[in-house]
Amino acid sequence: MDLRERTLELAQHYRQNQTPLTAERLIGGIGAALKYTRLPDGQDGAFDFGSHTILIAEGQAPKRQRFTLAHEVMHYLIHQDDDLLSELHETFEGSKLESELEVLCNLGAAEMLLPGEGVDAAIAKRGQSPKLISELAEQHQVSEEVAVIALAERGPSPSIVLMAGGKPMRVFFSAKSQRIFDRIRRNVAIPKDHPLAVALETALPYKGKAPLPGHGTMYALEAFPKGGRVYAVFKELQN
Ligand SMILES: [Zn+2]
Fold first, then answer.
1. Global pTM?
2. What is the extent of the structural domain holding 42?
3. DSSP codes joined into one string, 89-100
4. How much distance in Å is there from the Cα of 105 to the middle of ligand 1?
């Protein structure tokens, strides 16, 4: 079984049954309760299996909360799928298992909120451009995190997609396609001389070779600054 494909199927099926995906319908499909509350720093949500309640961090943007809600629903759907769960446990263990589970929940949440066909159509027309992140998010009324995940998953070349900003500059969110092994974590600092930092500073787009911040391997980078953020696609270099 392909874990990603199975996860996407679960998400598509859930979307078809629960559409339109309001918060009520998102939790309604699994009969869970919903609670907005304070969560530890850096945590957006949690699924309390004991009380069958989804906890969402209060004070975040509504679109971000909706993505978190879909992510927590995916935790439950995966938890209920014996085949998927046993495959996951056979393939990974320890912290690898945990991080893979988070990746799958993000992937499913993105597919729920932003159907893959829409992303494929945009990529076919415009290429796997970082400009698509804010455009897809706006068109489909989803958070930019959702668009980042979809663009990494559905792009034709193996890639890492991210958005970054702030002072000092750091990674806000990233996603990668399955075939890429380098990982970049949230809040990783971007060095001042990195093309991402230069794009933010100058408000000019960048296209050329660059390493992932904190890594040695070179990628083909396309970076697009907008509204105090930089959106970026790092594609694997073709030999
Ligand atoms: Zn999670």
1. 0.93
2. 3-113
3. HHH--HHHHHHH
4. 6
